[in-house]
Amino acid sequence: MTQPVVTRIAPSPTGTMHIGTARTALFNWLFARRHSGRFLLRVEDTDRERSTPEATQTILAGLEWLGLDHDGDVVSQFDNAPRHAEVAHAMLASGHAYRCFSSQSEIEAFREAARAEGRSTLFQSPWRDVPEADHPDAPSVIRLKAPREGQTVIADAVQGNVTFRNDQLDDMVLLRSDGTPTYMLAVVVDDHDMGVTHVIRGDDHLNNAARQAQIFDGMGWAQPVWAHIPLIHGADGKKLSKRHGATGVEEYAEMGFPAQALRNYLARLGWSHGDDEFFTDAQAREWFDLEGIGRAPARLDLKKLENLSGQHISAMADADVVAATLEWNDRVGGAPLDAERLARAVPVVKDACRTLPQVVERAAFVLRDRPVTPDDNAAKSLDSVSRGILHELTPHLRNASWTRDVLETVVGDLARAKDLGLGKLAAPLRAALAGRTATPSVFDMMLVLGREETLARLEDAAAPSSGD
Fold first, then answer.
1. Which of 127, 156, 398, 428 has its CA 20 to 30 A from that of 277?
2. What is 376-462's CATH number?
3. Which CATH superfamily does the domain covering 6-71+232-299 fall into?
4. DSSP letter at 270?
5. What is the pLDDT, as a whole number, of residue 242?
6. For this structure, is 303 an active site residue?
7. CB 31 within 8 A of CB 225
């Protein structure tokens, strides 16, 4: 490509950052980064009643958490309103737009008559060809003078050529009577002024592309490459909504999915590279193209996300798992975690975890202090016989080399001496070391806890109870 690639994400700051917006942002980011281009952020904040600084901050925080860095400053669409109006007047001067003085009641009367006669309800303004000399001194809007014959063809990089009959496209309003621009005009002007070369967005905007293309043409501007991607649906095939579960990026962060896992999953949600499911950020940037985007809606599958998340946690450097877990814990307001203890446990627990909360759960044995009080299930394995065996085991461990092979040998020898399977001895060991039945390997726990802590916990558990 000779012209540098410029993509953009243009969310409206009216609520949370939807997972669909995040996927669109990711596709734009990947495409720009693959082609050494620029990825821009524009906040479409023209809806002043619904746009809030808090929602804007939510979008920025969501992009930051996802690791999707944008180039340059954040552009405010509202701040560009004078430029939008300037373009509307330029189109008026060139004959590609006209002033319309029709009132809302007149427009509605036109539509009611059209419905009654079975005609198209697309408003056809009587002012389209009225000379300026005959204009009244009254409020007016500026409308696009759209072609009424022929076709508008959108050459879409995902959908292929999509054809619209021009008699099905109305003369849309560009500038309202109060001088404020409409969304349709603002988007085109901003995309042109920002140098956007590729508009990658949801296919719910495909109809908008036909109308926006007419503004580009009216101004003599080159159209961007259009790429309209299918929307995300729930598992039932219906448009994603709250009834399907989490829809906001921050919800997935709070659920404890690492950002790179969500990036991987979202990249595969509507785009493919052969049969590859798990891949790194570097691979995604190298592989991503528009040709790999399918035309069918993607379906959100939490099980697949969990599976990918587990693969990413397993593949992450131990220090990165610790950092991500601490960040998640802070995000959800969890009790403070001892980072040093967590770091000792991560190597032996991460492979069994699909989310960051599971890392904390699996590492609970090292995060808790003595005395370890077993839960009800674990306590059942600490009867007087089991406590006696633990008491007998302690001196053997005290003099043993603290390696896995030696620890396994010492415990195995005692189990055989007592004519027990290793599993029978593992249960009271789990209760003593972790206070629960579901834990990492007892030998992993011993190595993580170290000799002194392990022996102290075993001695605590072996001590006679009041019921003995």
1. 156
2. 1.10.10.350
3. HUPs (3.40.50.620)
4. S
5. 65
6. no
7. no
Q: Is residue 34 helix, strand or coil?
A: helix
pLDDT of residue 3: 84
Other Cβ atoms less than 10 A from the Cβ of 399: the count is: 7
pLDDT digits (tens, 9 = 90+) for 11-63: 988 778 889 999 999 999 999 999 999 999 999 998 877 888 888 898 999 99
Is 380 annotated to bind a ligand? Reply is: no
Pick the catalytic residue from 239, 242, 303, 380.
Answer: 242
Residue with more model confidence, 424 or 221 = 221
pLDDT at residue 272 tops 50: yes
Closest by CA to 17, choosing from 51, 50, 60, is: 60
Fold of 79-229: Rossmann fold (3.40.50)
pLDDT of residue 234: 85
* 193 vs 179: CA distance, rounded Å: 20
Lowest-pLDDT range of 285-294, 309-318, 411-420: 411-420
Please name the residue that has the structure tokens 């600084």: 53
Nearest to 222 by CA among 151, 155, 143, 150: 155
In the three-class reduction of DSSP (H, G, I as helix; E, B as strand; rest coil), residue 463 is classed as coil
With bands split at pLDDT 50, 70 and 90, how would you rate the model's confidence at 1?
very low
User: Who contacts 161 (Cβ-Cβ below 8 Å, separation ≥6)?
Assistant: 153, 154, 155
- CB-based contacts of 89-92 (< 8 A; 24+ apart in sequence): 89/142, 89/175, 90/219, 91/142, 91/144, 91/174, 91/215, 91/218, 91/219, 92/142
Q: How many residues does the chain have?
A: 468
